[in-house]
Amino acid sequence: MQNKQKTLNLLGLAQKAGKLATGFDAVKISLSKNQAKLIFIGSDVSQNTKNKLAFLMRKKDVKLVDVFSSAEITQALGKERKLVSVTDSGFSKAMIKNLNEGV
């Protein structure tokens, strides 16, 4: 299985385990509470949303991943989402490992 698909599968598992914050407001809260470990944003999201997220992420040590389209994120989660925060360090480490091995 490709690393890209493995990462999307892990995203779906994290959703089922309740280890994600999905949507702009939930991601904003997870960042403000320092719960966000990794953030996925659809590669096709508007520049305005990207700018707002960049402002929220300033001075935060959180990796931003934008290699998946909103459609890919939506398919992995089973509901329409463009922005997702992983709040579990185990899931985030596994996803980062997959991404570093070549998405």
Can you give a write-up of this model?
This protein has 103 residues and is an alpha+beta fold. α1 (3-16) packs across α4 (70-77) and α1 (3-16) packs antiparallel against α5 (89-100). The chain is built from 5 helices and 4 strands. The mean pLDDT is 94. The chain has helices at residues 3-16, 24-32, 47-57, 70-77, 89-100, and strands at 20-22, 38-41, 63-65, 83-86. The chain has one domain: 2-Layer Sandwich (60s Ribosomal Protein L30, Chain: A), CATH 3.30.1330.
Please mark out the parts with pLDDT under 50 across 5 or more consecutive residues, or reply none. Answer: none
How many individual helices? Answer: 5
Q: Structural class, judged by helices and strands?
A: alpha+beta
Considering DSSP H and I runs of 4 or more, what fraction of the residues is helical? 40-55%
Give the neighbour order of strands across the main sheet. Answer: 1-4-2-3
Spell out the CATH superfamily.
Ribosomal protein L30/S12
State the total count of DSSP E strands: 4
Largest sheet: 4 strands, mixed
Order of helices and strands: HEHEHEHEH
- Quote the distance from N terminus to C terminus: 11 Å
Shape: globular
Q: What is CATH's topology name? A: 60s Ribosomal Protein L30, Chain: A
Q: Give the mean pLDDT.
A: 94
Kindly provide the name of the CATH class: Alpha Beta
Architecture per CATH nomenclature, i.e. the level-2 architecture: 2-Layer Sandwich
- Strand portion: 5-15%
Over all CA atoms, what is the radius of gyration? 12 Å
InterPro entries: Ribosomal_eL30-like_sf, Ribosomal_eL8/eL30/eS12/Gad45
Pfam family, one: Ribosomal_L7Ae
Domain Ribosomal protein eL8/eL30/eS12/Gadd45: 7-95
Organism: Lactobacillus paragasseri
